[in-house]
Design brief:
Length: 392
């Protein structure tokens, strides 16, 4: 049975410097929260700058899926959904059971992760809006520390990836078709026939190969389109993928028939409700069919990510790479009669999150963590710079 890791016990993170050289080793029996996790990893990255020759800085891969609710992952206790690749990785790492996003919408969620600041501070409060002038991303901070930075997949803020600290970028903007999607590959506009997630997974692999060849530490920010609906607002999975699921096995929310009389009045006319009705909600069969399609595109996403996961192994990166997986927000599948996200209900804000890497023992953590916690990376960078400057 997995051990439930309490806060703040069972950890020790000690670096002592003498003449700029570390002589204490990182001791990390368990990691207990995303803020501390970020503290540890960023401190690791900076500590290795002052370490003995031959000691490598760690690499970081952050994978952001789109509209994947917490229970839309087999490793999170869903016996129906088929996600073997993600399940395997999740069970090798620390699984966070209470991870949430601060704003359940694509653009604000991505900006919150990149800057570690709320939309009211970073400027991104709606789809496609842009970061305020002077906002600095985690990619820019890591680039300053000698990291090769790359992003691949969905991009949904105004500034281009190259303007936010990424050396390498292969991206598509907003929402659209799964196939023949307009993709900007290192500045060149192309429309590959294959699924956009498949194409971008392959290009993320190319980035990893280039990073290995460059002998630089790297940060990869990989963003999937799936399981977001396509431009026609359907989950366009292949029929053979859908055939892996039986409709009678699809879950249906107990609250789907909520009359909302005890809820705020605006919820009776909100788009989450009117759009749900266009899908046939709250009819149970309609919800089951919709859920089957949702699960099917997640299964396809899992398959596309397998190429990236396999490359991490074949390139020999596992021993020095920390892998994060999270979703930008959840999705409502009939809870209170609703669809979509944005609303501050748990299926909308509660997301899967796990991390694995060197010296991290598998386990389960129940502490509240947020996608905005990357703000603390910057704080640790500033503190660490002061510490290392004083030690020299």
């Amino acid at each position: 049975m997995r051990e439930f890791i309490p806060f703040p016990e069972k950890w020790c993170f000690l670096f002592t410097f003498q003449g700029g050289e570390p002589f204490s080793q990182l001791i990390m029996k368990n990691v207990f929260s995303l803020p501390i996790l970020y503290f540890c990893f960023t401190t690791l990255a900076l500590a290795y700058q002052h370490s003995s020759p031959g000691v490598e800085k760690p690499n970081f891969i952050f994978i952001y899926s789109d509209d994947q609710r917490y229970d839309a992952l087999g490793a999170n206790g869903n016996p129906v959904i088929i996600t073997p690749e993600l399940d395997l990785l999740a069970r090798q790492g620390i699984q966070f059971t209470n991870a949430n996003v601060v704003f359940a919408l694509c653009s604000p969620s991505r900006a919150a992760f990149l800057t570690g600041r709320y939309g009211s501070s970073n400027g991104v409060l709606e789809l496609g809006s842009d970061l305020k002038q002077g906002e600095k991303t985690i990619a820019q901070y890591l680039k300053e520390e000698g990291y090769l930075t790359g992003m691949s997949g969905k991009w949904h803020i105004g500034k281009k990836p190259s303007e936010t600290g990424f050396d390498f970028s292969v991206f598509f903007t907003g929402n659209g078709d799964y196939y023949n999607r307009l993709i900007y590959d290192e500045g060149k506009a192309i429309t590959p026939e294959i699924h956009c997630d498949q194409y971008c997974a392959s290009r993320s692999v190319d980035f990893l190969k280039d990073a290995v060849a460059s002998d630089k530490p790297f940060f990869l920010f990989h963003n999937t389109q799936l399981p977001h609906m396509n431009g026609a607002l359907i989950w366009d999975a292949k029929e053979k993928t859908k055939a892996q699921y039986r409709l009678e096995n699809m879950p249906v929310a107990n609250s789907r028939l909520d009359d909302l009389v005890d809820k705020p009045e605006y919820l009776r006319t909100v788009r989450n409700l009117t759009q749900a009705r266009s899908y046939g909600y709250p009819n149970a069969d309609s919800i089951k069919s919709h859920t089957r399609d949702y699960y099917a595109v997640i299964t396809e996403m899992d398959h596309f990510l397998s190429e990236l996961f396999e490359s991490i192994e074949t390139l020999g990166l596992r021993d020095n790479t920390y892998i994060f997986f999270m979703s930008d927000n959840g999705w409502m599948l009939g809870e209170h009669g609703f669809t979509s996200k944005v609303l501050p209900y748990r299926p909308s804000t509660h997301v899967p999150f796990f991390v694995l890497g060197p010296e991290l023992a598998p386990g389960v953590n129940q502490e509240l963590v947020l996608n905005i916690d990357s703000r603390k990376i910057r704080m640790k960078l500033i503190i660490w710079r002061k510490m290392t400057s004083l030690s020299q």
